[in-house]
Structure formats: structure tokens, C-alpha cells
Amino acid sequence: MTLDRTDLAHDVTSQSANAASLRAAWENAAADERRYRGLDQTGAVSKSFYDGIRSRAESLHAQLMAADANRRIATDRDDYTVLRADHDGTVLSVFAEAGNVVSAGQQVLTFASAGPLEASVDLPEDMNLPIGSSAIVSDAKSDQIITRAASLRQIAAIEDTATRTVNARYIIPNSPTNLRIGQTLTVTLTSSLSDDMVVPLSAVFDMGSAPGVWIIEPSNKKVAFHPVPLRRVEGSAAVIMPDQRMRDLRASGELQVVAAGVHDLHAGEVVTIAPDQAQMQ
After folding, report:
1. DSSP for 153-213?
2. β-strands 237-240, 230-234: how paired?
3. Would you say residue 192 has pLDDT above 80?
4. What would the pLDDT profile of 96-115 be if each residue is shown by its tens digit?
5. Could you give the CA distance from residue 225 to residue 72 in angstroms, rounded to a whole number?
6. CATH number of the domain at 195-264, out of 2.40.420, 1.25.40, 3.30.9, 3.30.450?
7. InterPro entries under this entry (predicted)?
8. Global confidence as pTM
9. Strands across the sheet containing 185-189
10. What are the structural domain ranges in the chain?
């Protein structure tokens, strides 16, 4: 897309001519300064006369620097009249037609970069999925599965206050050729949802860097703190995403999570399990 560059091209010509004129004047003044410097050192000319010659050369040099900067600005503005993508892709929509007057910062087209396509979906604000979480993507009309290995690339840091949702983008690997940009898709979240664990809210403790839980190692009955993503809070319970060690202990039926007094624990402390306390499954 090209903007009318007539006025900008004239500005480039004007600024370039001004810079060239000042460069010639400065080069002449610099030559005079070098010549009179030697005469000043021998006392052939007065100190005040030489200072005037030197001041003129320095002034012209400063003017030349400003003129060069203005020339570069004019050249950049002229270059901006041609919109160039920095990579291959597809133009999705155009918002300006020939003859329209546009202003700086106005959107004139939407461009999608080439490469794996992405599915955009709005998630509930309390769904704290980690980057890299997987999902199933299927066609919304036919329900045909496109991929079972979509990966969460980005999740918006700011929620939509009207809908209480955040936008998330899933990369669709090996995007099929029949998948169209703008196509309506269904995203089914699968990343570790079956691994989610419900614990008492009192078991979740934030040590300052991230929330986590204290678990009891079955081999020595010592507690260890495990940072875990907090999915959501449901009343007096919290839904967390256990790490691999916690999943292994849960699979073997040995997982025990401390639910009381978590603020007073320190790593490596030995705890006693009350007889009536059940294991976390």
C-alpha cells in the first residue's frame, strides 16, 4: 500500500539541498580554521581574529548536524509512504481506499503473518492456565478435530471488564491447508485438567514468589514446599495444578498435603500425621 508522497518528496529534496549547502560552507570554514590555526600559533594573526574563524566553523558544523537530522527525518517520512511487511503473510482486511485522507496512527489494514495459524479464544478470568497448556481444536460447524496438540502461546494480561474474560491464543501446529483465516473454531481445554487437584483453601500458602502447598514426603515424613499454579477458588476449596512429584505420589496413594498451620512450617521439618487425617487422593 502506497500513500501520496508528492509533498514529502519535495521536503526530502529541500532538506537535502539545505544539508548540502551547509556542508559546503562548513568544509570551507573548517579549511580556513586549519589554515589560521597555524598562523595564530606563529603570532601572524591576532587571537581574537582566529577565535572568530573557529567559532564560525563550529557554528556551521552544528547547523550541518541539525540539517542532516532534518534530512533523515524527511527521508524516513517519505519512506513511510510505502507500507512494507517485515515478513510474509496475508492481508485480511483493508480500511482505506484510494483517495482517502489518513492520519498518523490510523489503521489501514490487518495483516496475518505466515506460519502456523492460531486460534483466539476468550477464557474466564479465573482460569490461570500456564503457557504451553494443550487444547483440542475442532471445526465449529462440522466438529471435525483439527488438532489435539494446540499449545497456549499467549494469554492477555488485562481482562475484559465487561465480559470478565481474558483473550488467549493457541498455536495450531502443522495447520491444515483447508483451514481458513477467520474460520470459527471450538477450543476444548485439555492441559492437565484431569490432573487438577482440589485442596482446602487453607493448604495454599504464598511464600512471596508463587503460591504452593506443603506436602509430606512418605519416606521421611518431612515437609517440602511445592509451588503450584492456582487454577481457581471454589468457596473454602482451591483447585491447583500439581507438579510431577505430586502426581506420582497421588498415583501411588501416598500424597499427603498439609492443610493447617502452613504459615509456621519450614522445609525439612518432620510432622506427625493425626490418625484421623485422610490422604489426599
Report:
1. EEE-SS-BTTTTEEEEEEE-TT--TTPPTT--EEEEE-TTGGG-EEEEGGG-EE-SSSEEE
2. antiparallel
3. no
4. 888 888 887 888 888 887 77
5. 58
6. 2.40.420
7. RND_pump_MFP
8. 0.44
9. 118-124, 165-171, 145-155, 134-139, 185-189
10. 6-79, 115-191, 195-264
